[in-house]
Write a structure and sequence with these properties.
Elements: E1 2-6, H1 13-24, E2 28-30, H2 31-40, H3 44-53, H4 61-72, E3 81-84, H5 90-103, E4 109-114, H6 117-126, E5 129-130, E6 148-150, E7 153-155, E8 163-164, H7 167-170, H8 172-183, H9 189-197, E9 204-209, H10 214-224
Parallel strand pairs: 1-3, 1-4, 2-3, 4-9
Antiparallel strand pairs: 5-8, 6-7
Helix pairs in contact: 1-10, 2-3, 4-5, 5-9, 6-8
The structure holds BIS(adenosine)-5'-pentaphosphate.
BIS(adenosine)-5'-pentaphosphate binds at residues 7, 9-15, 30-32, 35, 52-53, 56-59, 64, 85-86, 88, 92, 123-124, 127, 137, 139, 142, 145, 168, 178, 210, 213-214, 217.
Length: 226
Amino acid sequence: MNIIIFGPNGSGKGTQGAIIKEKYGFPHIETGVIFRENIGGGTELGKKAKEYIDKGDLVPDDITIPMVLNKLQEDACKDGWILDGFPRNKAQAEAMVEGMKKEGMPLDYVVEIQLPREVAKLRITGRRLCANDNNHPNHIAFDAIKPVEKDGKLVCRVCGGELSTRADDQDLDAVDKRHDIYYDDNTGTMAAVNVFKAVGGNTKVIEVNGEPSIQEVTDAVLGGLK
Ligand code: AP5
């Protein structure tokens, strides 16, 4: 089963992608995570990507497109994949459609998590990352997933791990820029969403309201993957 998840930055793509991975066992490919791992490892790719990510810009297409298309051809992806964070503009979407056609790779589902911009912004700025598992949901503004206090500091509500913030989450100009790119339906991510919504054939489009609780969003997503 091949799935692309779209949604504004902070809408819960990573959260839902991890849940789908847990249920079906397919690799969850997150371009943002690949870049952050490279930044953490001090690789050449990481050094280049950091310049763009810190400002809220997209990493250039000539780096990102081959990186993803090669990843999808790895053995681990042969039975299915969940792609999160790509494509992010019209050029990436067109390259993806072309690449899939060339490889005879089907696309089963396009999941679009819809969320108003102001809510997405709050989700980003209040997000806290667990040192033990990036996918442990922690958010300082939502009671259901609020971190817990231990020895005077906030720790992960799931495992007690240390919490941190992402550098690109705390710079409000960079957050706004990420959302400008997402909601741009001319050449930005919404243009890419529209390319994939128009693919047709056996590809099913699942539009989900991202505003309710994580569990409710999960129910809507998994309910559509049938
Ligand atoms: P990336 O890592 O993809 O960041 P993003 O798109 O900004 O997405 P996020 O990870 O911030 O949000 P999310 O939708 O996954 O939300 P989450 O589940 O964490 O990309 C980072 C950067 O890398 C980009 O800016 C760009 O520079 C570069 N890049 C990446 N891909 C690229 C590409 N293809 N081309 C070029 N450059 C690229 O949820 C957010 C918070 O809300 C969490 O705290 C979560 O617990 C909470 N939450 C989730 N769902 C709910 C809910 N239903 N109710 C309450 N809280 C919720």
